[in-house]
Write a structure and sequence with these properties.
709 residues, alpha+beta, Beta-Lactamase, 5-stranded antiparallel β-sheet, 26% strand, rod-shaped
Length: 709
Amino acid sequence: MAEVLPESDRVAADIGVGIGEHAVLDALPRAVVVTNADGRVVLWNRKAEVLYRWNEAEVLGRSIVELLAPPDALIANESDFAGVRQGLVVSGDRLVVRRDGEIVRVFTHTQPVLDASGNVVAIVGASEDVGVVRAAEQHARDVTEHFRAALDAGGLGTWRWDAASGVIVWDERLEGLFGFAPGGFDRTYETYVSMLHPDDRAGVLATVDEAMRTKTRYRTDHRVVWPDGTIHWISGVGGVTVDDRGIATGTVGCVLDVTEQVAESRERERLNAEVSAAHDRERLQRERLEFLSAINDALNSSTGREEVMRNVTRTTVPRLGDWCSIHVLPSRTAVVPDVEIAHVDPDMITYAKQLQRRFPYDPAAENGVAHVIRTGRTEFYPDITDDVMTSLDATDDERAIIEQLALRSSIAVPLIKHGHILGAIQFVMSSSSRRYTLDDVALAHTVAGRIASSLENHRLYDEQRMIATTLQRSLLPTNLPDIPRLDIAVRYWAAGDTNEVGGDFYDVFAVGNEEEWAIVIGDVCGTGPAAAALTGLARHTIRASAWHGDTPTEILATLNRAVQRSETISFLTATYSVITTDRAGATITIANAGHPLPVVVTANETTTVGNPGTLLGMLDTLDIAPITISLLDDDVIVFYTDGATDVPKHSIDEQQWRHLVKTAAHTASNANEIADNIRDALEHVLPFDRRNDDIALLIIKLQKPASRS
């Protein structure tokens, strides 16, 4: 009777697997499961136990589909198994459930085992866990897709270069970034190199070579020339590939077209440069306006030619140069100018003056300041180079001096006003890196024009003041006569800057003989030529009438008629006095025509004497009432014009004036000291340069008679 085997052993026998071969299945690297044709497990190797976490004894005879298929995959698994039962081979991933309920992904190859008649007698499935592999593959796909999306979003093209073969693989986007149609790049290194812009080629290749040598990442930003000749900017980032021996094999990387960004960047740079240039221009304009303002202040604070020269040079350095020298002709006929020099280093000024003595000014020189003054043409040397020295025929000594002074750039411009060359001004940069420009030349001309105007104004002012002073002196007596027993002092202070003739006058002269002396003081209304003319008329009329033998009243009446008949519309005040002396003292007759009354100071009192009288030149009839007084030894009489007492906001009344004169007389021993004391007192009330009216003083002190021998 034949032995009846268990189904598992029978199936195993049918497929040719003996009990001894079970150990072979356990040695296989995959989980092997054998079922009968109905799908019930008959064999289960060790790897199956590890993978599915069931041991063989627990699964024998159970349906493989019901055992391993997750509920939601049961139908799909039954369908696949049905196909295998019909003789199909099925391979692929599927989800299975382990004993503990964990679902894992496995790759399974399932195929039927057929008998000699072609009937399915068993089904063999070999499986392995591919969960980690599939996760890695999915991650790789995700990363690849992410990278592809990033490349697409950024417009990036990629390359791969194999150094050994020289083959360069570009994707379609990169081909487009180099101006090729898809597939148009021939993949050769030579073609790639030929498309690099000639000015950038060496730098790009050097960067790649250095990266290959050091096996480091690199970046390049450069231009490429498309086949159509247009130029585009690209930015590339690359990395070096190495083999398992660490040898560099090529590069990989990506490229972005940055032509638009470069254009925008350059436009921003251009706009920034324009803004910066505008700021620089505004700053330079502001500095130049401030400089011109400083020059104006320097000129306005100057009271004469010497101060103009000194103030200008000191204001210029260092704003417009390390050196500044101004050369001004002292007169229209002079050929050698006066010179003033300023330098950032005061010690250099002494050296410059030594050079002036060593090399005297040559009016006929063919270059330099002398040439500028002679021709009126500007000399501008942006850079004082050896070539410039050669063109100027500079001697060895001159070259040595220029080198020692570190002269680098210079401007010399003439000082011209109304077509007359008044001098020149020179600006020099020394060791500074700054060089003069045409804008600086224009500024120098502006400065020179203002200096020339100031110099000309000072010249005209000096001429006017000299004329005024000369004319004023001509209207006053040059010398006072020596009168026995009379100590006489006179003073005259012109108002303001003495550039205009005043109307105050005084005179002392003999009347017919040397026993009677005329004392005259007057004040013409106004200043200038008209006042000077009337002053001259008054002096000459008074002298002529007095010498004719007229009385004081007649003399003033004659003057009144002369003023009325003149073409002037002005008037004047005057005091005409006649004084005689003897051993007992002096007698003085005072006739007053609207003039401030004189003050007499004696040992006991100080009084105002005389009658006011009528202004001269205003009325046909005068009211003149002369008085006669006596003077004793040491008595003082002070004649004055109203400029002494009529001071805006500081007027001195009659009582204050008498006290001032008394103090001045009692603290002095002679007429000159009295005049000086009055001057000091008036200066204390208000300085003369701030007064708006002239002052004339005539002081007489009666001296004791000389003792007889």
